[in-house]
Amino acid sequence: MKPLAEHIRAITPREAFRPVVMFVPWIVCVLVALGMHTLAPLVVDDYWVNVLRRIGVFIVAAVSLNIVNGFTGQFSMGHAGFMAIGAYIGGGVTYYGSLMLHGSVGDPSFQTHGVLLMLGGVAAAGCVAAGAGYVVGLPSLRLRGDYLAIVTLGFGEIIRVLLELTTKQLYTREEVTLGALFKLPLNGPTGFERIPGYASVFWIFLFASITCLIAYRVKQSSSGRAFLSIREDEIAARAMGVNLTKYKVRAFVLAAFFGGVAGALYAHTGVNPSPTDAGFQRSFDIIIMVVLGGLGSISGSVLAAIILIALPELLRDLQQYRLIVYALLLIIMMLVRPQGLFGVREIWDFFGKKNRPTSKEESNP
Amino acid sequence: MSEFALDAQGIGISFGGLKAVQDFSMRVPAGGLYGLIGPNGAGKTTAFNLLTGVYSPQSGQVHVAGQRTDTLRPHEIAKAGLSRTFQNIRLMGELSVLDNVLLASHMRGRHSIWRTILRTPRFVAQELAMKRRAMEVLNVFALDRLADEQAKGLPYGDQRRLEICRALATEPKVLLLDEPAAGMNPSEKKTLAKSIQRVREMFNVTILLIEHDMGLVMDICEKITVLDHGVTIAVGTPAEIQANPKVIEAYLGEPGEAATSPAQDAGGAA
């Protein structure tokens, strides 16, 4: 039988170059974001537009955590740590960038440049968080299950404490110099205030849909199968030639990158990122989304993020009882569907397979 | 450089005081079909684990197609051309049959994360080629019609066959089969024997198999190694092995001792 290399050579450029597969999904992402941005204010009030922005941020967070916890089966409990790194880096770039370039922060006349700064901040946040992900990914090679969970939990707490120890002030125009920034003026335990809310529904949902697209493409690829095989059976995965080291670290780096992106976006939604955002409470919130949606299911994570952010808002009328109702709903959910909403599958797997392209036609988006 | 596809010299491992496998040597020429037998607990699967790097040998050397492998990590050994099936089936249960086989052709391709994210023509071509090849491999065992099923949903015999498919998809030079016929009925075993010989021709692969079913081993293997308590007690052709008093003793106990029946051995697991 022919080896793989010969099979690859046998494939014509026509078969291989599929513009629909390559480009169209990106355009769809932009359209989704544009659609959300125009429709949202028409349908709901400002308050719910804000909830929508939160939902978008947590879609990014949950889908990215799913790469580690869901695909690869490595139980990470420090995702909030990556988010917080992203939030402070992203916020820092926008805040101090605005100060140094324009002299004030959040000035409407600086809006366009501010948004560009935010995008730069998002990229920087992703990269720094990815670096942190690499560092956290390394022990995951030796640790399994509970032990890895403890290490990653510890990572989140370390980030929280480090953020509390940053210089307790935010510099003003006069004080800020490049050298002064090395003192990390991030306002310590009080939290990073006064970051302008540049992350509109458009930007948040652009990043959310791109995250989903990338996660989906990874899942439907050789790398994704390697991730899933590590979750299923490490010994068999190794025997089939999967480099566990490489793929575990790759999963952590990918997840951390988008965790950082989520954090940077979060910082620009009009909240004040504070050290508690790196704590285990936030990590658990994201884990609950991933588990509720189904470990390995991207659409599950998206739906779970929507439900878990919107639900407390909808239950607001119940006042202090809402936490009880929320907890009860989760318990019932786990009893009824322990594998999560969709298990490892995607939402469209549950509808008729005939009328949509399946893997057989090799036309996955 | 040896002309042997698989060349193990004096490998051994002990767990605490238990010498699980001692001084195990085996040379299989390219294209050979050899057998490894022995009573339960003789160390056959441990020997496989040593060859494939699940355990690192404490002594000895292993060469696969001339490349030294005992110092490599399991995935590197797999890349060097040594693939295996597992006695207790280790499929990726949640994944589809096709994905199980695709996973195995993983290391023969290149997987840049950028190409994956951008779905470049090169990525698409590779995935397409992997899929075509996987379907061909599945076709050998008539599993292609089950390609979209979840692996854990397959009947037992199909799961065993899928394990062989998956091992073959790694494009191995040497294939280690750990009790491929376990739990199969006589007619399935006959088909399996034919398939194993066919696979050897089609994939140009060297095969070493552990099997409890003496009929199967004696029928298809050219040469057999017998292990007992981690020690190699006999090497030879099926006829020589059948006549070897040491082998008979290992299986049936010493003459005069209350002997266990050979049938019991045939059905059990090591």
Say what oligomer this is.
heterodimer
The ordered string of helix (H) and strand (E) elements of chain A is HHHHHHHHHHHHHHH
Largest sheet of chain A: none
Note poorly predicted spans of chain B.
Answer: 258-270
How many domains of chain B? The number is 2
Rounded to an integer in angstroms, the radius of gyration calculated over CA atoms of chain A is 21 Å
Query: What is the H/E order of chain B?
Result: EEEHEEHEHHHHEHEHEEHHH
**Whole-Å distance between the termini of chain B?**
34 Å
Strand order of the largest sheet of chain B: 6-7-8-3-9-10
Work out the number of β strands of chain B.
10
Quickly count the helices of chain A.
15
Are there runs of chain A of 5+ residues with pLDDT below 50, and where? 354-365
Total strands of chain A: the figure is 0
The pair of chains with the biggest contact is: A-B, 47 and 56 residues
Radius of gyration of CA atoms of chain B, rounded to a whole number: 19 Å
Shape of chain A: globular
* Cα end-to-end separation of chain A: 30 Å
What fold name goes in the CATH topology slot of the largest domain in chain B?
Answer: Rossmann fold
**Beta-strand percentage of chain B?**
15-25%
Q: CATH homologous superfamily of the largest domain in chain B, by name?
A: P-loop containing nucleotide triphosphate hydrolases
Examine the coordinates and then state which fold CATH places here, giving the name of the CATH topology of the domain at 26-280 in chain A: ABC transporter involved in vitamin B12 uptake, BtuC
Name the features.
heterodimer; A: 365 residues; mainly alpha; ABC transporter involved in vitamin B12 uptake, BtuC; globular; disordered C terminus; B: 270 residues; alpha/beta; Rossmann fold; 4-stranded antiparallel sheet; 11 helices; 10 strands; 40% helix
